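Objective 1.3, modelling of assemblies. Example input:
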Amino acid sequence: MNADADADDRSPAPSWLDALRVAAMFAVDPAGCAGVHLRAGAGPVRDAWLAYLRAALGPTRLVRVPLSIDDDRLLGGLDLAATLAAGRPIAQRGLLAEANGGVLLLAMAERVSAGTAARLVGVLDRGEVQLERDGLAQRHTARLGVVALDEGQGDEEPVPAALRERLAFSLALDGISPREVRDGGNGLDGGAALSIEDAQSVGEAVAQARLRLAAVSLSDEVLQALVSAGAALGVASLRAPLLALRVARAAAALEGCDAVDEEHASLAARLVLAPRATRVPGAEPREPAEPPAESPAEPPAEPPQGPPPEPPPAAESEPPPEPPPDDADDTPPPLDPQMLQDMVLQSALAALPEGLLARLKTAESARVRARAAGKSGAQQKQGTRGRPIGVRRGVPKRGQRLSLIDTLRAAAPWQGLRTPPPGARIRVEPDDFRVMRLRQRQETTAIFVVDASGSAALNRLAEAKGAVELLLADCYVRRDRVAVLGFRGKGAELLLPPTRSLVRAKRSLAGLPGGGGTPLAAALDATAALVDAVRRRGETPLVVLLTDGRANVARDGSGGRARAEEEALAAARSLRLSGASVLLVDTSPQQAPQARRLAEAMDATYLPLPYAGADTVSRVVRAGRG
Amino acid sequence: MSRAFPFSAIVGQDEMKLAILIAAVDPGIGGVLVFGDRGTGKSTAVRALAALLPPMKAVLGCRYACDPVDTRARCDQCPTLKDAARPKTHMVPVPVVDLPLGATEDRVVGSLDLERALSQGVKAFEPGLLARAHRGFLYIDEVNLLEDHLVDLLIDVAASGENVVEREGLSVRHPARFVLVGSGNPEEGELRPQLLDRFGLSVEVSTPTEIPMRIEIVRRRDAFDRDPEAFAERWHAEDERVRRRIIAARKRLAETEVPDAALERAAHLCLKLGTDGLRGELTVMRAARALAALDGVGSVGDAQLRRVAAPALRHRLRRNPLDDAGSSVRVERALAEVFPA
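Predicted structure (tokens):
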């Protein structure tokens, strides 16, 4: 949930102390906490943290996962060499299974593909690797924690959200200076043996905490306080409070306590809930009413330990939509949970930076960007998925699949000349290997470049939006991806990076305001860059440019029609070199020579909107896509 | 696999639980699709189902666990068994098969038995996940992230009830009737319309916002995580009740009537919503009948129709893909018109 494209912009620099605490608590219960999302560039601070973690983990394994790992190594698969040598299938375990009970170190997590992330997430959820590959069906226990090393800079795609959500901690080390690391660490609170110089004692403390962990109790009040704090901070997912519970337990175990007290709960709220906050209680007029108003109604929950024999809401189907859960019984609370809740919430709030709300907006767009990551990394896997179109000679690597029958067929004629190894009937040599050739349908990404300048807005921005919506519906049917670029005022803005979610495309379009100059050159430059990016992903770009062609803002943001138009034409010519097919929809009230010239410069199909109507545009795009 | 969270201990999410129960009573309903936010217990509910389903009778020695009673849907090996007319049977648990992401196609449809091919040079068929899911449930988490060619394949098999394998020199066909259960998060990508339509019921789940409910969810989940055995033990009686309800409903299903008035209402509703084809009406009817059987009432009434209308129809509206909220609301509106309070 935690949106964090701009690490140091978002949260205040956490103290090195907190960073060490996180490492120690994570080490106590790696599988329970699921992991740490570590935002930091490579450097002495990160190295120091990892060294500390290693010390804290003690004998627990820390397995490094390279970025380019394929399914064979990650999940496991057939060990081809051993299989052929032995004459029977021999499975190899994947890294996930090997890391069972340990910690996985995911390098460059910001570059991890959504697919790899989904596999990891599945394993984190289930605690086991389920292997259904290459004729093997196996299950391996894999209870592990993940340290996702995120070196992402501001505008890069962050770690896939599904993965981030499951990791208890999110830690930014970028604000910590190496000097602090050298001096800090000493004299931690409570005399707990947490010291970087004293790596030995950390390992010892963690080992003892692990023994204690199972016995640490957590009162119902603490549980209520953490859940309420999560709700007050606008953390929608229920995984967050669950993770906070585990962290609180780990914190208690680390301090040698048998029960979680307020301090542990506060720490958990600060480290787990605060980074996921989507709103500041009290900042919005509507929200603040919620926590206080709800709180009195909260204790009702039920008798302290919450044993089940109460009606499980919808096991029956009689209760219509409104389930009668727990608010029915009105047992007064044994303690004063309200105070505890306030305390926990306060502690989480303390970790929130000033002006969070303003930044949440940028964070939101970063999150949106994250979702677009759907197929990143697809290009490196080209040829490993799709429909089979034949076989070729070659050794299966990088995810290519061995075609067993063809391999055996290739080996067959030579058997008379080769002596099979003892016990085997045939001998296969590397020359015989045949791999499948696969062809993947090339995907198209439609890039909508929408002129929202004053002149266009005046004329027909609304109509242009309507036309785009029709086109979007068409893209939906064909499963094209879409991207939206808007330009007005001083420059162009990528409103929506390539995505399949048309709902978001529509939203981004609806939210596009009109007015300002027409920075056409900047827009065309941005388009060319996007075309290039799309192409690099192995997809076919298709540009739909909606403008009246009346450029009046030059690249450097200065006005002046003549220069602006000249630059726009130059930019158009360079876009033509990129080879993308372009459709220019002229949105001016009368057909203007500028737009037509522009279309010629970039070799685009020219379509004046006045005579087009939304339907025609849609048809032309379909045809242009070929 | 580690112990599953008990079905009856799931707080809220009534529509989802209802849809799963309906599919358990009448597998012919055509699958359940669960779409919603992260961390709402989608997977939990589906995995809980496995522990809930009563065991089924299967032909002894049949690798597809064929039904001894229904001779039409048998694999081609069953008739060759000894005493094929009255085969020996045994009780087996109803399969709830997980299709993990990253599964290769050969494991889904089945493929050449590698071991025997390599060691004995024999061409034998090794059944895949589709075979294992026969007569049970096939669960796909993150169904919208599944590769397209696998989705195509699943649609085909789910529709025909038969898996045809023509690969690696094998030519095998075997029955594969299963309830397809998919879950996913719409923000990670949309599902192809063709696939959407294949699901009988479609459920939308969202994170509960009431704090007491949230607290209860976390409390139970935490208790489960701490001690799964004891937690499951505590909920055993409840789960048992649900199981008995499913068994009873299955028995009643055949006798449960769908009066003409109810059919008319369903047709009226579909007309109002402008759903394509007859599949919508059929699903409403089947789901309402299963629900009536679950409720223990002899015939389908308005109460049942009302409750199944949204899950049975919301994904069939001729939809404007850009209309983000619409469908549930539209069903509600049509319901209000057809069933004036």
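Chain B touches chain A through 88 residues (CB under 8 Å).
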